[in-house]
Design a protein that fits this description.
Blueprint: H1 3-27, H2 29-56, H3 70-97
């Protein structure tokens, strides 16, 4: 399956569930705060897990996923996607509720 077809299928299959989740989360500010915290925690935990491989290899300071293997590189970019989604929802909630 081509990547463009997979993305289109994912939008049509998961789109209604994502919309329903945003309606439920947006209906109560407490749900919104919990959802943002969960996104941040998932992103942070993925980031720590992906960086642990570098710490075990004796590399204390590194910038970016260049020195990681493929699986940890995907986990690293996924972590920043979760954090970015949390930031976007956080900014949207600030605009919505202020």
């Amino acid at each position: 399956m081509q990547e463009s077809n997979a993305v289109a299928n994912a939008v049509f299959i998961y789109g209604p569930f994502v919309f329903l989740a945003f309606v439920v989360i947006g209906s109560n500010p407490l749900f919104l705060v919990v959802a943002i915290a969960v996104l941040y925690l998932i992103g942070l935990s993925k980031l720590v897990i992906s960086k642990c491989s570098l710490f075990r290899a004796g590399i204390g300071i590194s910038f970016g996923p260049r020195l990681m293997n493929a699986a940890n590189r995907r986990r690293y970019t996924s972590a920043y996607r979760f954090v970015a989604l949390g930031v976007l929802i956080n900014l949207a909630s600030l605009l919505l509720y202020s």
